[in-house]
Amino acid sequence: MEKDIVIIVPAYNEEKTIGNVIKGIRDNIQSTDIVVINDGSTDMTENVARKSGASVINLPFNLGYGAALQTGFKYALRHGYKYAVQIDGDGQHNPSFLPSLIGEIKNGDADVIIGSRYAGGRGYDAPVLRKIGMKVFGIIASFITGQKITDPTSGFRAINDRVIRFYSTDIYPVDYPDADVIIMLHQAGFRIKEMPVDMNPSLTGKSMHSGLMPIYYIFKMMLSIFVTLLREPIRDKT
Amino acid sequence: MPLRQQIFAILISIGIFVIIIELVRKRRLREEYSWLWLLTGLILFVLAVWYDLLLTITYFIGAGLATSTLFFFGLVFLILINLYYSIKISTMANQMKDLAQEVGILKSEMKKSVKESESQSVKEL
């Protein structure tokens, strides 16, 4: 039994996809703990997830993607897991890459492994504006961290226990944790590594980036990166 | 300042004072917040009684009319109060998030331990 790993699946109204996601995880790693963070869903997400054999943490109301994820990290911290993998509940991330992601984090060369759509010259179909956005933030993140970051928005990541502890504190930005988190991790002295993965277009078609959200997103990310650079680096105390 | 204006301003500031004290007495407003409002009432009162002070400030900041001084500082005050509330709301949102996460985790653990103790007692039977 691989009891030192927990797979964290944040889900908000994903009853159609969550079952397959959990099954996909199970098909690839037989015995690991899967915890679904049900972020105040109004559909059958909880039941479907439970039936598929995952433990479920129900948040009393919708907190948003980042806060749901952080709940998973806090859970991992409380239960002393050594590694945690985050994977989205909408079926966007392909679970067949889980074993290699876990293998890579266990290797110990890095504290964070980011599953990247673009690493290794791969492509991914996304709306033009999003592609530009990802590219720009990728360039910014690469520039600041001094290493190539091709997919800063990827929510398919594996982390070790030091990062779990880091993520469980108040410094974790809970609304859109992506490029700014990478910079924060870098400032705190963690080693980041990208690994090529394939991703499906989101099956449910809903995205957190719709309507006016992209504009807010760009603004928030710029501000967040800017103030992160202004702050004293938060050194990992372990 | 015309006498009528002065009396009106004094009445208003006294009114604010009374309302604040009453709200604190009924525990509808926490003492923590009341000082801000009491200060507002006090400043209003001082400016109404001491018109020369208002004129001096007006001259000092280079405003044309005493009334625009009042409006300007009134606006600045409102902006600052809103900022103060934004800070408070941010703090509370953060605390609420932490609480919600904690509740979620604790509930799931409780469920698990209830299940375990149930299966335990079934075994014992």
Q: Alpha-carbon distance between the termini of chain B?
A: 90 Å
Identify the overall geometry of chain A.
globular
Instruction: Tell me the number of structural domains of chain A.
Output: 1
Helix content of chain A: 25-40%
Structure description:
The complex is a heterodimer of chains A (238) and B (125). Chain A is built from eight helices and seven strands. With 238 residues, chain A is an alpha/beta fold. A seven-stranded mixed β-sheet of chain A has the order 3-2-1-4-6-5-7, sandwiched between helices. In chain A, β2, α2 and β3 (55-58) form a beta-alpha-beta unit. Chain B is mostly helical and 125 residues long. Chain B has helices at residues 3-25, 31-49, 51-61, 66-124. The longest helix of chain B has 59 residues, at 66-124. At the A-B interface, β3 and α3 of A face α4 of B.
Short description:
Chain A is an alpha/beta fold. In chain A, 39% of the residues lie in helices and 15% in strands. Chain A has one domain: Spore Coat Polysaccharide Biosynthesis Protein SpsA, Chain A (Alpha-Beta Complex), CATH 3.90.550.
Please tag this protein with its features.
heterodimer; A: 238 residues; alpha/beta; Spore Coat Polysaccharide Biosynthesis Protein SpsA, Chain A; B: 125 residues; mainly alpha; 4 helices; 90% helix; elongated
